[in-house]
Amino acid sequence: MINLFSLKKKQEAAKEANDGRPPVKKQSAGELRVQKDISELVLSKTTSITFPNGKNDLLNFEITIKPDEGYYTGGTFVFSFSIPTIYPHEAPKVKCKTKVYHPNIDLEGNVCLNILREDWKPVLSISSIIYGLQYLFLDPNHDDPLNHEAAEVLRDNPRQFESNVKRSLAGGYVGGHHFPRCI
Amino acid sequence: MGAMDTGNMEGRWRDLDYLLLRQGNIVGPGFEPAPEIRDFLQDDFKVLVIGAGGLGCELLKDLALSGFGHIDVIDMDTIDVSNLNRQFLFRMHDVGKPKATVAAERVMKRVKGVTVIPHHCRIEEKPDEFYKDFHIIVLGLDSLEARSYINSVVCSFLEYDADGTLDMSTIKPMVDGGTEGFKGHARVILPGVTPCFHCTLWLFPPQTTFPLCTLAETPRSPAHCIEYAHLIQWGQERTSETFDADNPEHMKWMYEQALKRAEQFNISGVTYSLTQGVVKNIIPAIASTNAIIAASCSLEALKIATMCSSGMDNYMMYVGTQGVYTHTVSYEKDMSCIVCSLGVPVHADADSTLDQFMKQLIADDRFSGKLSKPSVSHLGENLYMAAPPILEEMTRENLSKSLVELLGEKGGTVNVNDKKLAGVLRVQVAFSDAASEPNAMDTAGAG
Ligand SMILES: [Zn+2]
């Protein structure tokens, strides 16, 4: 145990010795953990990652997914990731930056993926989220809709849904909303 | 000096002196009763209180009345009318003023002889040196993020000598209080000795989150309606604005949207204060819980400062829902904690390149089989990232740089990641002096 009363002098001496030392950037626990996640990331050929703020900011990055099968084949979808400082106690915040016609992604880029919210666990990783996002494009799910219209069309008329997706990817109107070309 | 005269009216410190001038069976290590201890507490000792809210008000009052002469308080918030029922240092006419400033003023006015210095800012705005200046830090916070930040600051102060022994003078003790309704905790953290926040992060329950699609499609509770307005409607309807929970107009808008949605789905119970509670993640505060937890924290601060009694080891939980229940647990430090652990000491040549150093780590018996393609970082800098390719490319040039160039003259802690490692490996790099090292080793070997 320590005795501050007797340590008083020693601390003052230590403080003087520290003066003049340049301040250092501190890493949050979230940063340390995401470093691990990212250093072990193995991306499939349909996925890529960029770091808009350079190599030393791993708390903010973008994942680009280019599905090579399913309804969304050929499209390019960019997701922004923002890692909280207490990651992995809390899930990353993920938004879809590309406007997309999708039952589980709304027009503001909110994504309905269980592991991003209610089913997040600290043992999951960035890798798990990327798998989840890839899966959303392979298997859009009409049971968990964020884009209600898209979900209804997918449920009632998959052929119509397929052609709606094609139109949106090529840059066109679906249900009164314009989707910029992303092919 | 003059202020102390008015502060020391006769008998004022009688109770404190009972503790400081007498021996006892449960005194802390090295405690010798002496009047100088009170002088030290009043003249030299500096305590920082983080947070001037419900717990903070209680803490400031308790610490000042316990004889602490120099207190600083830091809080970024201003006083809201809803604080007044329990944050007793504030009055109606203080609404809108900084909590830290008003709290400092009030305590100094009521408790003669104490100096309270307010800091109205975010804790991240202060340089680390600011925190180093205090003997002890007492936390009255409601956010895990803030605790986590201050934890990483004080853990970064820890220094170890060459053989891995902790330099006790670099320990910045923390006393942490927290309350949630009728429950609360007080804990003592001696970084490097007892578990830090990160060692026991699991003690904090994860925030409750609702699935977005439930909010969008099948809301069932008032909170669902409020979260819908908060997470989805704001982005749809007020695209260009950033939501500010402290802006009353924003909050009113949120309340009105939530109310409309609740009516649509036949849900009752959306109120303005519930909206505030859900959006700001406010935990109901009970004045008596704050008082009990703050009293325990202040007492622990006094014990650490004077050693008049051995301290709490190291976590006390309090439950006031049915009567009064307390339980103290001695949690254990996570020896491989990525925030407070020393890391494995490694001697390296200051002139060796990062590439050579990484090969040395791979060859090190202590990590045998655990390292194959390591990534290395130091402080905020990613020195080498083995993946993904884009980062590998950006950091590759460091492989040929020398350690002294990358870590500085004194070496330091590097974090090593590898697929085969379960967590982050901390390595404490010390430079061996090429000329004298072999001799020192010989001597040690001979003895
Ligand atoms: Zn720790």
TrEMBL record, chain A:
Recorded superkingdom: Eukaryota
Protein name: Ubiquitin-conjugating enzyme
PROSITE patterns: UBC_1 (PS00183), UBC_2 (PS50127)
Reported function: Accepts the ubiquitin-like protein NEDD8/RUB1 from the ECR1-AXR1 E1 complex and catalyzes its covalent attachment to other proteins.
GO biological process: protein neddylation
Family: Belongs to the ubiquitin-conjugating enzyme family.
Pathway(s) served: Protein modification; protein neddylation
Keywords for this protein: ATP-binding, Nucleotide-binding, Transferase, Ubl conjugation pathway
Single annotated GO MF: ATP binding
InterPro entries listed in its UniProt record: UBC, UBQ-conjugating_AS, UBQ-conjugating_enzyme/RWD
Annotated UBC core domain residues: 29-174
TrEMBL record, chain B:
Name of this protein: NEDD8-activating enzyme E1 catalytic subunit
Record EC number: 6.2.1.64
GO molecular function: ATP binding; NEDD8 activating enzyme activity
Entry keyword annotation includes Nucleotide-binding: yes
Catalytic activity: ATP + [NEDD8 protein] + [E1 NEDD8-activating enzyme]-L-cysteine = AMP + diphosphate + [E1 NEDD8-activating enzyme]-S-[NEDD8 protein]-yl-L-cysteine
Annotated family: Belongs to the ubiquitin-activating E1 family. UBA3 subfamily.
Lineage: Eukaryota, Viridiplantae, Streptophyta, Klebsormidiophyceae, Klebsormidiales
Role this protein plays: Catalytic subunit of the dimeric E1 enzyme, which activates NEDD8.
GO terms (BP aspect): protein neddylation
Alphabetized InterPro entries for the sequence: E2-binding, ThiF/MoeB/HesA, ThiF_NAD_FAD-bd, Ub_act_enz_dom_a_sf, Uba3_N, Ubiquitin-activating_enz, UBQ-activ_enz_E1_Cys_AS
Source species, domain of life: Eukaryota
GO cellular component, one term: nucleus
Pfam families: E2_bind (PF08825), ThiF (PF00899)
Pathway it works in: Protein modification; protein neddylation
CDD domains listed in its UniProt record: Uba3_RUB (cd01488)
Domain E2 binding stretches: 346-432
Enzyme active site: C213
SMART domains: E2_bind (SM01181)
Key words, A-Z: ATP-binding, Ligase, Nucleotide-binding, Ubl conjugation pathway
